[in-house]
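Chapter summary example.
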Amino acid sequence: MSSQERNIELLHNNALNKSTAFTREERDALGLRGLLPYAVSNQDIQIQRIMENLSRKDSDIEKYILLSGLQDRNERLFFRLVVEHIEQIMPIIYTPTVGQACKEFSHIFRHTQGFYISPEDKGIIADILDNWPRKDVRVIVVTDGQRILGLGDLGANGMGIPIGKLALYCACAGIHPDQCLPVMLDVGTNNEELLHDPLYIGYPHHRLTGPAYDELVDEFVMAVQQKFPNALIQFEDFITLNAYGLLNEYKHKVLCFNDDIQGTASVVLAGLYASSRITGRPYKDMRIMFLGAGSAGTGIADLLVRAFEAEGLTTKEAYERLWFVDGTGLVVSSRKDLAEHKVPYAHDVEFLDFHDAIEFIQPHALIGATAKGGSFTKESIELMSAFNERPVIFALSNPTDKAECTAEQAYEWSKGKAVYASGSPFKAVSLYGKVFKPGQGNNAYIFPGVGLGAVVSKAKFIKDEIFLTAARTLAHIVSQEDIDRGSLYPPLRDIRKISWEIATAVAERVFDEGIARAERPADLKQSIKEYMFDPRY
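The structure predicted for these 537 residues follows.
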């Protein structure tokens, strides 16, 4: 390659490119003079230009495409933009816009990001991982695309999720982009529309299942141990059966966790802890009901059991505080159709529908994990408000149109009494002469910090109790100002500091429990801060 070709290559290397921010001295030294316009822009000016361009876009999906292009061209500028405008940018690069991006992924495909593994790679996964150019991988987010958000089977289009999650790892927790690897286990799709779409980018066959599927996943997990021994694997958006199966298979063997199960649980638990400062009811005294009993819902409940036990309740007493309604009705012991993960939450009571179950149980908190928009009706919110002075309502499903109810509905139907949090962002609501600012129970409060703490300590694996630690840390960060405005979570603009605090608490627990492979630094918090990627140039 000639020197001139190397110069052009520099401008096309997203990790090194600074574009118009290259100084005159750098342009001369690197052979870039004449290849860039005269003006030298600092990063602040470049951000101003990008924000101006974003404002010209009429739709969020067009903004997503613009930002994806920026990430491909200039990594550091992209991440500084996300860090400094997190509240505005996160809904574009992740929920809710990433849902639309995944649906359209094959049609808006511009430039490859991440790593794709298909059934045709069986037996050579370790070999082809050598094709990934960055060798010090520390965080892998992997999906098979079968249950993307609340949208179902999107096959290889689900790659938007690992890409988006790792962007948040970098922006929110300072994991270096070079150390991130998005992976799509492209084992096919049962979505007939995709299979008949000539633009579909994925493996054009029905899904691999059974032992063949298990063997491919196992080969991938073991290949990671061989090629990237310091890497954390985050399982993302697998259907319930596989989500639990993979977590139970590997959580005591390798460094991994499932964000849908454990990350969601931790952020909800933090919100429940914080809600007690509004309701006056301690967590240990809460009775909690779920609508939806998939991996997210029962994953939350599994951690809540641990939290109740930590408050002094017996395991039996803990289970008695947690109730589920699924698509059939109340989860009760007389039912013969219960999946294994629901059985511990089956109570020996009469079978009831959703409305009657609320009236019978009279829960203090109602948690939605249904992926069905509007599942919380006016009647159900009014009923919750009838026997709770401040009913706690979590509408967790993503994207926005899948939320069980909107913030405005919760406040209006409860006459302003609801303590509300959602999975997707909702704007402030003005009602009854007050302004309500709903909190977003976003997993981004939890998984980046947990991942950072695990990576820095080189944890052997992640115990369930780690997510208790993360939840307590997040709840402690919630300020009185946040509580006064009705929010159960701190502002997202503080996410780097929040992740730093959680990472420190997580790493301390890893070291204390003797499951770290790294040596404990003299100043753990400072060591973590120094590890965090700074996108400024």
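To summarize the output: The first helix runs from residue 3 to 11.
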